[in-house]
């Protein structure tokens, strides 16, 4: 199961990489009325990966109590504001790919036999 999850995370890198061939205008339009654009979806995934690499994975050790996840709505809104500071969609794709690879690598070093809890 763990290996499948890591492979799924890795597979996202190739799917996002392909988006470089699509005009920015198509990636910055909402996918449906009231929904995010592909640019924002990539930024959302990046920001959660960044959080997990920086805050959660370093705490993953046997019998640890991990920090509570941030409020999802607030964190997602913060993610969108954060990616608005990037100068291009290309840069967002670059940092997503870099951070997703870092997440996959970090997760591969976490012992699959450990147990931990999340704070509430």
From TrEMBL:
Protein name, entry field: DinB family protein
Domain DinB-like: 17-109
Protein origin, superkingdom: Bacteria
InterPro entries (alphabetical): DinB-like, DinB/YfiT-like
Pfam families in UniProt: DinB_2 (PF12867)
């Amino acid at each position: 199961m763990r290996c499948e999850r890591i492979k799924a995370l890795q597979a996202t890198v190739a799917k996002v990489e392909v988006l470089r061939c699509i005009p920015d205008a198509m990636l910055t339009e909402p996918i449906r009325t009231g929904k995010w654009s592909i640019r924002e979806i990539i930024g959302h995934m990046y920001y959660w990966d960044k959080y997990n690499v920086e805050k959660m994975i370093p705490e993953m050790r046997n019998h640890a109590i991990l920090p509570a996840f941030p409020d999802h709505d607030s964190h997602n809104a913060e993610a969108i504001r954060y990616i608005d500071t990037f100068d291009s969609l290309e840069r967002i794709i670059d940092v997503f790919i870099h951070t997703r690879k870092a997440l996959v690598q970090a997760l591969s070093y976490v012992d699959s036999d450990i147990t931990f809890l999340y704070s509430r």
